[in-house]
């Protein structure tokens, strides 16, 4: 199975932005706040599935699982848009994530 990298997601979002550049907000720091709000809205859709369907349904119903994973993908798409808005690279994210992981591993 191939790995799916953050860089691939960033590149795919850039392709979407290029295709819809005349219809969508331009990717720049000024639109980062808007993208963050859209990401939160998508996260609300994920939460709705968890609240209404429950974890058992997500794990056992192929249709519910499909919807859940699709909404999670929407969250990640906006997350990548936000990274692109602020010029955050895969390397920066990996460094910050790894540092935070190590802090959390020794926290308690």
SSE series: HHHH
Low-confidence segments, given as residue ranges, are: none
What general outline do the C-alpha atoms trace?
globular
Beta strands, count: 0
Task: Give the C-alpha Rg.
Answer: 16 Å
Q: Strand-residue fraction?
A: under 5%
Q: Round the mean pLDDT to the nearest integer and report it.
A: 96
Distance between the termini: 35 Å
Alpha-beta classification: mainly alpha
Q: Helix tally?
A: 4
Largest sheet: none
Helix percent reads over 70%
How would you describe this structure to a colleague?
With 108 residues, this protein is mainly alpha-helical. The protein contains four helices and no strands. Helix 2 runs antiparallel to helix 3. The longest helix has 29 residues, at 32-60.
Based on the model shown, name its key terms.
single chain, 108 residues, mainly alpha
